[in-house]
Each structure stands twice: as C-alpha cells, then as structure tokens.
Design brief:
The complex is a heterodimer of chains A (about 300) and B (about 210).
Chain A lengths: L1 H25 L3 H6 L3 H5 L4 H21 L5 H23 L17 H19 L4 H7 L1 H17 L5 H16 L17 H9 L2 H5 L10 E5 L2 E12 L2 E12 L11 E8 L5 E2 L20
Antiparallel strand pairs in A: 1-2, 2-3, 3-4, 4-5
Chain B lengths: L11 H15 L2 E4 L28 E11 L2 E5 L5 E5 L5 E3 L3 E2 L9 E8 L5 E8 L1 E11 L3 E6 L2 E6 L6 E4 L16 E8 L6 E8 L2
Parallel strand pairs in B: 4-8, 5-8, 11-14, 12-14
Antiparallel strand pairs in B: 2-3, 2-7, 3-4, 5-6, 7-8, 9-10, 9-13, 10-11, 13-14
Classes of the chains: A alpha+beta (about 300), B mainly beta (about 210).
Chain lengths: ~300, ~210
C-alpha cells in the first residue's frame, strides 16, 4: 500500500514542483514577488529576485527528475532535501520576519502559515518515499491503475487544500454553504443584556448630525468621555471650554437623547443640552443655534 | 484593561455623580433638528485637523506613534516618522480604546492618535486620544460566532466581535448591533482597536456596501 501511495504521489508531487518552479524561474513578476518575501532578509533586496529564480530552477529540476527519472533514488533524495530546506526556511521566516510572504507560489502573497509548513512537509515525505521505493512509479501505476488514480487524485486534492491560491474555488463556497445550512452565526438571538439595544456609536452618530451638536461645536473639545442610560434617555458627556466675559473655564457638556433613537428612526433628533462648570457645577446658559432654516423653493414651470 | 466609562460609576460617589449629571442633563435646553457638521467620534482620528478661523481658539495639534513610556500622566510617544511626542493627559481628555475608557487602559507599546493643544513646555495637552485605532478596507473570508476572518490585502486578519459594542452600518443606514447581514465575500470598512498581543482587531464598527 505504501509503495502504491508513494508511486501515485510521485508524479503529482513532481508536476507540482515543476509547474511551481517554472513559474518562479520564468515569471515576469518574480522580482516583485521576491521583494515581499523573507529572502530579502537573507540575500538582500537586490538579489532576492535572483535567489527566488534559483529556487524555482531547483524545484523545476527536482520535479522533472521525480517525474521522468526511472529507478534512481537521486531525485527523491533531492526532493526530500528541498522539503527539509523549505521547512527550515519557513521556520526561520516565521520567527525572523513573520509579516513576510513565504514566496511559495506565484499568487500567494500572504505570510507563512501552517499550510506552508504542511506543503513543505509533504514535499519532504514524498521525496523520502520516492527515494526509498525501488523501481519506476509507472510500473506500479500500471499494475494497479484504479487505486493509483484514486491515490493520485487524493494527493492532488490534499495539495490543493494546502494552497491558498485555490481558496476561492472551494473554501469560500464551502463556508457560504455552511452558513446557508446552519444559519448565520451572528444572527440576533433576542437574549442577553445588550440584545436589541441601539449601540452607543449610533447615538453618537445621531448626535453629530444634530443642531444641538452644531450649537455646541465651539464649546466641545474632547470626544465622548462617558455615557450611560437612565429612564429611556441616553446621556453622553463631553469635555469643553466655555468662554464668557469672566474668562475661559472647563466645562462638561451633557447631551441627553432618546436611547432607542438612531439616524434611521429619528432624522430630526430632539436633544437636550446642558453645560456645567466643572469646578462649581454651576449650569451655564446654552445659546440656541443661529442656523437659518432653508424653506422649500417654489417650483417654477419649465418654459416650453 | 479597566472597565469602560459606561460602567465606571460603580462606587457610591460615582453613582451620586451620575444622578446629579442625569438630572442636570434632562433639565437642559431642547434643540431639535439635524446638522451637516462632522463630529469627534472615532472616525475623526483619521480626519485631517482643521485649523480654526477664530484667533481665540488655539491651533489644534496632532500626534501619532507608539507609546514608549508612561510617566504619571505624560505619555512618551515615538512617532512613525522618527520624531518624539510628549502627550499630557488631563481630566478632560477623552480616551478611546474600542470604547470610551480611562487612562489606566493605556499601556506601553500601544499605538495612538491624539489631538490637543501644544503647550509652551513642548508637551501636547490632549483633548482626545484614540488608542490602537485602525481603519481598514477588508474582505470577509469567514464568519464565526465570536469573530470574523478578513483578508486585508494578501494578509489574513481576525476581527473579534465584542457583544454590546460591535456595530454595523449597511448601505449608509444607521449603526446597528445586528451583524447578521454581513456576508462572505463582501468588502467592508472596519474600524476597531488593534490588539498588540495577537495582531487581531476588536471591531468597533463595520461599514458595508457604502
């Protein structure tokens, strides 16, 4: 069974290495791809592109050797060495440059993840299996064609699952299907202390669209300091500076509005405004906003 | 992290103070109507400071960077451009770290945006401080009960849902705590607080389909 598994996996692994290696070696985008990888830390920014092409050449050679070479153990040993090298590089990159891309494939620009390690481990295991197995892989496949095809397909699927390049083909549709079948995990439950409450951010958004906020815009200096609900009201406190003939003094600006209102339900909010002297708690006068009201314009008939 | 200011009045004095402020707030002048003016909410951390035309209003200063030390109520901040800021917190400084909070929640290593007034001694008296705030354009890649998985460029990002705080706005509607309209594959603008310890983001709000 192990012999069959190894024999079936070898061409898949060889093809993967050859295709990936060719993309790195001949790709127009290789230099740009290399700029985001941890290779920059090893060989410098100027030579990272060349280093990535060299890695691609090695992958292409090993892949071609695994696929085409008959009974020789050398390609398998080279693939195992390549896999071990990848594992070491990924481990180093994860510690030394965690934000860097691994440069594993042409489209993959994300940082090193467990899937990168799993792919490298598969290369190591596949190479070791190929080196240990005697004879050519095609003899084994010819002897058990159906089982070999199934094993090769499983290997290809495992390698695809470990690549982020193909997530949009299977992972995202799978997640969407799970949501459709099992329901949205963030659907409101109707229970709990905060269920159905208007978020404070919505009250702040409503306040900031109000004339009350405009009338206090020259007084308020801070963002929201604190808030609480009381008897259906939501109280929002801001810090401010009040200027009058006696000078400038620090004040608290209190806004009270309907705790259940939001910009959707109350486009013209009613807001209570109070300004308190921070030192004496004296209530200071609030000047109503001097905002001209724009009335509807008369619609004139168009000339014909 | 200390408790947010919405629940900070746990002591007897705090509750008495809240009662007094509530009575004062409900006795204030009532103003009805909508305005087109902007605000000082968390989005304002990313807006360019607007100089006032009123000479009596001191020019607003802006600072950003990582906190390298906290000396009493002064934050030493290393700016991303290599400069250094000394930010003075006062009783009137608003502090945002996912939600309104207190100075005890601010830690060395946190990132910040601050607005305030430059003082003669070279410090900046902060009016408002936003700690670890991030504003990211992302794509939804996965949805779980307590978190969302995003793609931010080529990088994955975990967004944590904070019950009672995380809100969403759909198609320019008002912010709501109902997150059930978020879909896999959607482009979302996420405003939240970055967690330095694991690189995830506590979500304050998601703006979908604007």
């Amino acid at each position: 069974m192990l012999t069959l598994l190894s024999a079936s996996a070898v061409p898949v692994l060889g093809a993967l290495l050859a295709v990936g290696g060719a993309a790195k070696l001949f790709g127009r985008d290789t230099a740009r791809q290399a700029a985001g990888t941890a290779l920059v830390r090893i060989v410098g920014a100027g030579r990272a592109g060349l280093a990535l092409r060299a890695v691609g050449a090695a992958e292409l050679l090993v892949g071609a050797g695994l696929t085409a070479s008959p009974a020789s153990a050398a390609p398998g040993m080279a693939a195992a060495a390549l896999g071990a090298g990848f594992l070491g590089y990924l481990g180093w990159a994860r510690v030394a440059a965690p934000e860097s891309s691994c440069g594993c494939s042409a489209r993959e620009r994300g940082p090193v993840t467990w899937r990168s390690f799993a792919r490298a481990a598969l290369v190591l295991a596949g190479g070791a299996g190929a080196a240990a197995r005697g004879g050519t892989w095609w003899d084994e496949v010819a002897a058990h064609p159906a089982a070999a095809a199934a094993t090769a397909a499983a290997t290809a699927l495992a390698l695809a699952a470990l690549s982020t390049d193909l997530d949009h083909l299977w992972l995202l549709p799978l997640r969407r299907a799970r949501l459709r079948l099992l329901g949205h995990p963030l659907a409101p439950t109707g229970t709990g202390r905060t269920a159905g409450r208007v978020p404070v951010a919505a009250s702040v958004e409503l306040l900031e669209r109000s004339l009350a906020w405009q009338s206090m815009s020259s007084v308020v200096r801070s963002a929201l300091l604190e808030h609480w609900d009381e008897g259906g009201w939501r109280i929002l406190r801001f810090a401010g500076l009040h200027q009058d003939a006696e000078g400038t003094r620090p004040v608290s600006v209190l806004f009270a509005l309907d705790a259940a209102a939001s910009a959707d339900t109350a486009p013209l909010p009613s807001v209570r405004v109070t300004v308190l002297d921070d030192c004496t708690d004296e209530q200071l006068p609030v000047t109503p906003p001097d905002v001209p009201v724009r009335t509807a314009l008369t619609v004139l008939p168009l000339a014909t | 992290m200390s408790s947010p200011r919405s629940t900070s009045a746990s002591g007897g004095r705090g509750l008495d103070r809240r009662r007094f402020l509530t009575t004062a707030a409900l006795g204030g002048a009532t103003i009805v109507g909508a305005s087109a003016l902007g605000g000082l909410d968390a989005d304002a951390a990313f807006a360019a400071p607007t100089p006032s035309l009123d000479p009596a209003v001191p020019a607003a200063a802006f600072a950003e960077g990582r906190i390298t030390a906290i000396n009493g109520s002064v934050l030493e901040v290393a700016a991303s451009n290599g400069g250094r800021h000394l930010i003075q917190l006062t009783n009137a400084t608003s502090i945002w770290k996912l939600e309104p909070t207190t100075a005890e929640a601010v830690k060395v290593g946190d990132g910040l945006y601050a607005r305030g007034v430059p003082m003669p001694d070279g410090t900046m008296a902060a009016d408002a401080l936003w700690v670890n705030i991030v504003n990211l354009a992302v794509t939804v890649r996965g949805i779980a009960k307590d978190r969302l998985h995003f793609a931010h460029g080529a990088h994955g990002l975990v967004g944590r849902v904070v019950p009672g705080t995380t809100a969403a706005s759909y198609l320019a509607g008002a912010l709501t705590s109902d997150l059930s309209q978020v879909r896999i594959g959607q482009s979302v603008q996420v405003l939240g607080a970055w967690r330095p310890e694991d690189g995830s983001v506590d979500i304050a709000r998601m703006t979908v389909g604007h």
